[in-house]
Amino acid sequence: MNMNFHYIVRGIISDGDHFLVCKQKDGDYTFLLGGHIDFGEAAKFALAREIKEEIGANIMVGEFRGAIENAWENQCEISMFFDVQHNLTVQETPKPASSEEEHLAFLWVHKNDLQKKNLLPKPLIQRLQQDVTVPFWESTID
User: Fold this and answer.
1) CA-to-CA distance for 22 and 35, rounded, in angstroms?
2) Residue 1 pLDDT > 70, yes or no?
């Protein structure tokens, strides 16, 4: 089997009980902000770069919270999750920072609505609804 591998970093951006997520405008699922880690790039640097590219925000990457291995179709990824220190609030939903990010929409979602918004990877939903300061490792691979 020929699979494509992705090394991903995602940021946990919260305001109270709400999390900032994004979705492809034509997609039916959401995910945390972040993206691919370039070969040889530090994960924390990649996360700050990706969030700057997506919404134009300057953030500080905080503590590592956990990782999830995930597979679907012919794709496989390892996603690492970090706290993000920011000045974003639920009162203002970010817009794409450039035309290259126009395929994305951003939204604040209450922790109890993460499943309704089809947050992926699925094990992340329960982790965000609980104490996110507890380190985690999850897998969707049997």
Assistant:
1) 11
2) no
